[in-house]
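Lecture notes, part 5. Sequence design as translation. It can be helpful to think of inverse folding as translation between two languages: the language of shapes and the language of residues. The source text, in structure tokens, appears below.
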């Protein structure tokens, strides 16, 4: 408790840019936050931030609840755990990986833990280690929880272009840790101590403190708690006081959100019931975190009044066994079922049970037909997308992984031509030249700028300049330059790359660029999405060009295509719209094309590795070995 001020100071100076980036990437996506014990308070706080700032729908779940939910693959997931090794958080991480959500973020105070080991092996998982300098928490979460909640607040404010607001908030929180506030909280707690039950009422701005107070008082065995907001209390929960008023007291958290309602509610309570009102000043984000600090001190006061040290309440033997109780393994899903489920999520759901059965049968038959055709086709070469496929998006500025490189070298060494279709310029070729032996370069074709410029890997000459572009791309570039908002524009001869620098989501950015193209009647341009940017390309840019180039030197015209953005408007949609199109991430709704048949939880470069290991090459012809169940 003595280190809370130091924790706030750490939050104010910590580099949280990676967390902010992940918050921004999921601003307009549904979000689920997961936590147990004190970490569940952090999960509720982050879910509220996501909703209240107008980003998107969100919810907070315990790991057990999370394991039983069917959530959209578009959902961004945040898991909070101070230690990162309890059985429940490990199970939640496993469930999130199986669900193949759009993003999976782990927030922890320990750099080495069970979840950190998983994160190091799966590039889709983002581990956010908070190096808070405070000592390890006692039985109840204090500094870890404050760090989780304060970092979340600061990150969401930055994502909402209000990052400077945090300095004022942290200053007000420091003031609330002074003796005046702490003494007031302690006195209020002692005035309602000594009863078996405590009714905790809160308004919209004090929900975090109220939720955590209930958690702490119950976990430490200090007092039974009934938790409600002022209006929820009015719908029946008030009857508890009518029947149990002699053993109950009331603690009300009040802020500027609804001071009048709180006052009128408290006036109507039976006069025989002890009550205390704690006033939490400040706007919403100040009050939420201040109410959390109040909850810490209220718990301390009520605990010692009861003769219980909240930091060391003593854990019974059965409690230790419950905590370590192993969870049953989830029902295993076959690779076929996982593949079908991925495709099914891209299609509209039939309205009747009969139609659903027919749809399931159709999907299963289409999956069998796709895999049969794939296995029976003599392949003349393979064309890969690069970012998100050969390299994972977070690692796109590094060369390919060693295991992926080894498989590429094996296939090239057997004489199979390979193509790389990338939205990038020469950086992709430079990385590949550092990893692929020079003797194999003639077998590698690269289509830079989404296939606008076709080169052999060994050709390191400068690519075509776009300093004086003409036509629709130049017109669009000039229009975007006049648009309000922070955009990074990179104009080339056949491609305009648009990236947001002001927190604009990928969806909103694509919609705004697509709308401008339509308004200007720039019918020769296409707007596509990669894993990290929006590309506008003209008729000369197409990843199909890379396929044609590889086919021209292959022994057959049937070319396997592997990418990550197979769903429109992804930049691999056109390339993967083929019976030989394999995705390592998003699939299209077309039953005959663009399937993801990798095993459950394999995504990005790990799914690419699985596909590569399924390819056998003999005399310059490749065969895809479909794995049995």
């Amino acid at each position: 408790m003595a280190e809370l001020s130091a924790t706030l100071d750490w939050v104010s100076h910590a580099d949280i840019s990676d967390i902010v980036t992940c918050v921004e990437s999921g601003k307009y996506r549904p979000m689920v936050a997961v936590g147990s014990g004190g970490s569940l308070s952090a999960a509720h706080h982050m879910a509220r931030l996501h909703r209240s700032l107008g980003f998107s729908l969100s919810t907070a779940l315990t790991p057990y609840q999370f394991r039983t939910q069917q959530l959209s693959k578009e959902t961004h997931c945040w898991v909070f755990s101070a230690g990162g090794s309890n059985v429940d958080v490990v199970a939640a991480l496993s469930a999130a990986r199986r669900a193949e959500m759009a993003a999976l973020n782990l927030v922890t105070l320990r750099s080495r833990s069970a979840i950190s080991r998983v994160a190091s092996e799966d590039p889709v998982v983002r581990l956010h280690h908070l190096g808070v300098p405070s000592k390890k928490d006692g039985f109840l979460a204090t500094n870890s929880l404050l760090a989780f909640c304060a970092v979340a607040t600061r990150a969401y404010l930055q994502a909402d272009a209000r990052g400077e607001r945090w300095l004022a908030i942290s200053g007000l929180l420091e003031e609330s840790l002074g003796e005046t506030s702490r003494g007031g909280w302690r006195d209020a707690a002692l005035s309602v101590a000594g009863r078996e039950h405590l009714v905790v009422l809160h308004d919209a701005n004090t929900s975090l403190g109220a939720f955590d107070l209930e958690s702490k008082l119950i976990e430490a065995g200090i007092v039974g708690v009934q938790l409600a907001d002022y209006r929820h209390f009015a719908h029946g929960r008030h009857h508890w006081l009518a029947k149990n008023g002699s053993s109950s007291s009331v603690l009300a958290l009040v802020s500027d959100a609804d001071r009048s309602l709180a006052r009128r509610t408290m006036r109507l309570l039976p006069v025989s019931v002890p009550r205390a009102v704690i006033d939490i000043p400040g706007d919403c984000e100040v009050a939420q975190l201040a109410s959390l600090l109040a909850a810490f001190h209220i718990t301390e006061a009520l605990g010692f009044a009861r003769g219980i040290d909240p930091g060391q309440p003593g854990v019974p033997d059965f409690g230790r066994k419950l905590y370590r109780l192993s969870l049953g393994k989830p029902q295993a899903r076959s690779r076929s079922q996982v593949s079908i489920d991925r495709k099914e999520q891209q299609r509209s759901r039939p309205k009747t049970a009969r139609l659903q059965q027919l749809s399931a049968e159709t999907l299963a038959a289409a999956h069998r037909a796709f895999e049969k055709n794939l296995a029976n086709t003599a392949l003349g070469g393979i064309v890969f997308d690069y970012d998100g496929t050969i390299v994972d998006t977070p690692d796109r500025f590094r060369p390919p992984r060693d295991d992926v490189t080894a498989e590429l070298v094996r296939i090239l060494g057997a004489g199979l031509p390979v193509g790389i279709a990338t939205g990038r310029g020469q950086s992709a070729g430079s990385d590949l030249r550092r990893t692929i032996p020079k003797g194999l370069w003639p077998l590698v074709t690269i289509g830079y700028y989404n296939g606008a410029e076709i080169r052999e890997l060994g050709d390191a000459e400068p690519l075509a300049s776009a300093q004086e572009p003409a036509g629709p791309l130049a017109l669009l570039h000039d229009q975007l330059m006049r648009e309000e908002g922070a955009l990074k524009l990179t104009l080339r001869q056949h491609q305009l790359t648009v990236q947001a620098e002001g927190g604009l989501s990928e969806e909103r950015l694509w919609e705004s660029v697509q709308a401008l193209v339509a308004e200007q009647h720039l019918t020769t341009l296409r707007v596509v999405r990669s894993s990290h940017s929006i590309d506008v390309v003209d008729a000369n840019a197409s990843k199909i060009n890379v396929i044609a180039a590889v086919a021209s030197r292959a022994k057959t015209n049937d070319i396997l295509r592997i990418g990550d953005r197979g769903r429109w408007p992804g930049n691999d949609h056109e390339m993967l719209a083929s019976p030989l199109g394999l995705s390592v991430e998003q699939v299209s709704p077309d039953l005959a094309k663009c399937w993801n048949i990798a095993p459950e939880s394999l995504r990005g470069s790990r799914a690419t590795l699985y596909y590569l290991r399924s390819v056998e090459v003999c005399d310059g012809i490749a065969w895809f070995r479909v794995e049995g169940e």
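The translated text above is only one of many valid answers, since several sequences can fold into similar shapes. The longest helix spans residues 353-376.
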